[in-house]
Design goal:
With 188 residues, this protein is an alpha/beta fold. It has 6 helices and 11 strands. It has helices spanning 10-18, 40-50, 77-84, 103-106, 120-129, 149-156; strands spanning 3-6, 23-26, 31-34, 59-62, 91-96, 111-116, 133-134, 136-137, 162-165, 176-179, 185-187. Helix 1 (10-18) crosses helix 5.
Amino acid sequence: MAAVVGWHKFRLAVRCLRGGGVLAYPTEAVYGLGCDPLSQAAVQRVLDLKGRPAHKGLIVIAADFGQLLPFVEPLDAARMALVLGTWPGPVTWLLPARRATPRWLTGSHPTLAVRVTAHPGAAALCRAWGGALVSTSANCSGQPPARTALQARLRLGPQVDLLLHGPCGGRSRPSTIRDGRSGAEVRP
């Protein structure tokens, strides 16, 4: 059974992440599943929990753009100004992945989906961890995402190592996804 703790328990969360664990935590609209993006085993656990094919790739969130730089190549100045102007906020951008970015994050894409989160708890978690985190909705693929700690616990229960209890940000829909190179909306 997953341990359920409040947001003030970041030391437990960091210990869980360092040990290759999977967390459930609130984001701008829904509960997310997160882990260390550089741990292939942890990312595989997230994919298995969701029943999500690896070729689709995942979203990585951060407290600031600097935490995303190890994973993505910045765009030209005008495009980056557009991207950075939406952050922190509920807009996920597809940016060119660095050559060293693991395929278990990008899937079959040359880009990585990234967001500087506007959720204060999720941003604080990234700061406590010291970097970016995988962030995908806490649900099995094709099912509605969890919007409360109780829903996350009922849907994913013992498969999650730690459940951070707290409110989501109040958005009715998950983040918009846009292509950084073209600005086109991929998911409204």
